[in-house]
Amino acid sequence: VKLNALQLLSPPNNATGLVNNDVELDWSDAPGAQSYEIQYDTSAAFSNPVTETSQDSYLFSYEMSLGIDKTYYWRVRAKAGGQTGAWVGPWKFTTVSDFITLLQPSNGAVNVNPINVYFDWTDIVQSNVNGFIQSYVYQIA
User: Fold this and answer.
1) d(Cα 67, Cα 14) in Å, to the nearest integer?
2) pLDDT tens for residues 55-103?
3) Phi, psi of 3, deg, nearest 5
4) Do residues 4 and 36 touch, judged by C-beta distance below 8 A?
5) pTM of structure
6) Residue 120 vs residues 22, 57, 99, 106, 123: alpha-carbon distances, Å
7) DSSP state of 137
8) Distance CA 76, CA 42 (A)
9) 8 A C-beta contact, residue 76 and residue 36
10) C-alpha span between 57 and 4 (Å, rounded)
């Protein structure tokens, strides 16, 4: 049993712009593990963590819905029988709303040159390494 062999995979450490209602934590298998304990908190000291336990040895991810514009720290440890592995992590990430915010031109801007308008907005990043935003669609009326 190699309970300390797991690795955190996603979201990458220090990731920013994760959609608050679509965060998925992923880690690798710890050979021999029967379950995993997951903790996340807004404090790096884990002073008031949310603790969840996976009852499946084959489940290597945990989906959650979180607050907007907050930094979270997370860690995972494996369990088997009466043994508990060491915490792996913490890693951190920052959430955003699932709404896009227009940055430029500012809302209500006047005297904007229609020939040379530059549009900019906040990005939305998917937490899963396989999911990403491919394009944005905007309308001008």
Assistant:
1) 17
2) 665 555 666 768 888 999 999 999 998 899 999 999 999 988 766 777 7
3) -65, -25
4) no
5) 0.69
6) 23, 44, 14, 10, 9
7) -
8) 15
9) yes
10) 14
Structure token digits, residue 94: 């920052």
Distance of CA 32 to the CA centre of its chain: 26
Contact 50, 4 (CB under 8 A): no
Using CA atoms, how far residue 125 sits from 49, 77, 97, 120, in Å, is 24, 26, 10, 15
Paired strand residues for 52: 38
User: And the tokens for 126?
Assistant: 């998917």
Sign of the alpha-carbon dihedral angle for 86, 79, 55, 57: positive
82 three-class SS: coil
Enumerate residues 6+ apart whose C-beta is below 8 A from 67: 20, 42, 95
